[in-house]
Amino acid sequence: MDSVFEPDLMQRWEMTVDRLIVHAERWHSTREVVGRLADGSIGRSNWATVARRARQVSVGLSAHGITRGTRIGTLAMNSIRHVETWYGVMGYGAVCHTLNPRLFDDQLIYMINHADDRWIFADPIFRAQLERLLPHCPGVEKVIYLGDSSEVPALPANAIDYETWIAEADPSLAAWGQFPERTPAALCYTSGTTGNPKGVQYSHRSQILHTLVSGQRDFLGLSARDTLLSVVPMFHVNAWGLPFIAAAAGSKLVLPGARLDGASVYELLESEGVTFTAAVPTVWQLLFDFLSENNLRLSTLKRVAIGGSACTEALIRGFRDGHGVEVLHAWGMTEMSPIGTISGPLPVSLGEPDEATRMAYNLKQGRVPFGVDLKITAENGDRQPHDGTAPGHIMVSGPSIIQSYFRDDKPAVDAEGYFDTGDIGTVDPQGYLQITDRSKDLIKSGGEWISSVEIENIASGHPKALMAAVVAMPHPKWRERPLLVVKLRPGQTATAQEFLDYLKGKIANWWIPDEVRFVDEMPLGATGKLDKKVLRAKFAAPVI
Ligand code: ADP
Hints:
single chain; alpha/beta; GMP Synthetase, Chain A, domain 3
């Protein structure tokens, strides 16, 4: 069919991620990229050097016959060499598959084989783990250890240290870009809470658009004046895109290596003058424990993005009231690259005279940026009203949101092109999304939904509680009833009744859990989130 339009007279500028690092190299060349090394010391580089060494990675790959489109795994914490590797792999047109070293061997073996990773770049600290996996991964031809030869002695023939490997490569020979923007760039697997993990393959275009979308002022909004500490690991949805956003903005980038404890994170925040950081709530809990034990203050940090699981009121207050740090509560997932919503204030929410109402807005997961659209639907697929009370399945669409899983032909979207996130939530008249549950964690009691998240939020506000979790337990009459699991603060003791009394009046009576159990440790999954599967298995006896 003839087009009724004039031809596009603007440039054909393929959106490939090498453009990000080339931009940083050219326009922010001396801005620092620093990272903690294996021995705990701080290594210092800058965007120009990172770009040069990333080119050497590309040259090394092509010299060894790696073709574009080949999947290259990484098993590594956030480090300068890891950032060089990911730009080197993607710039060349290969696909960077970040593997989470905290997963079980079986899961990693599955992912490496399913992705058909041909090479793996790994931190020396994961050598023993990788050597355990490799006999089960026949497709892996070569391993590059992200260190120098002193860190990985006596390597077998198919392995080499990174510094020796790139030393020979001439960066001027790197051929970056020059392929279509819809070429795959990166691959991440969801942790597979049910069934096998599923792969989400991002394209160059989707990554660049995600960078622009999440870089908007009301979202992550980084600037050249920011110093960004990416605590969230690159194997957790590409560190939420932060190494891309930092290059686009020309921010200083700080990488914490393997040390994510409170003392080490605090040291980096202060010594590098960090203004922006991001991680899941559990990391910040560790930091706060350290700050309060040592009576310390955060002197440079201005904003923190918290997501991956719900951010508590205690964390928001801790950052805001204790240290003057603004909390951006974010929601998203692997399938969304990952940004979905962020709790940036609106005039109407900021202008609320009542502090409790302002806090209620901050506790919600937030509003969509331009580039994400969202609908909430009832069981029959009809859209639910945005009244802040009607819950629905959260469905999303946008240029950085999944269409189909990797190696799966079926579309992962509905007839209107929206992906079902598996989360349940409400949207209020101001457009703030509130997650009330994951569909698989919802408690269906007597035909109605009980929000485990809402009970957890309230129970974790009990002064004696450090963490609270609510899971569904089978029940002969109601089908399911809530069970509350509590981890107390150190040195505290409490009775079940104290917690039940605390909840009374704050939630509907029929939402009050049937039972309360206390645990010494909460089970956490590989990305630091509460693992409710383990709790359900542990407390599986039916509640009568
Ligand atoms: P997984 O947890 O399966 O490894 P993701 O890291 O992609 O996968 O996690 C996505 C899920 O995490 C979302 O579907 C949602 O249930 C949960 N989540 C993310 N951010 C938040 C948040 N701010 N509040 C509540 N839940 C969140």
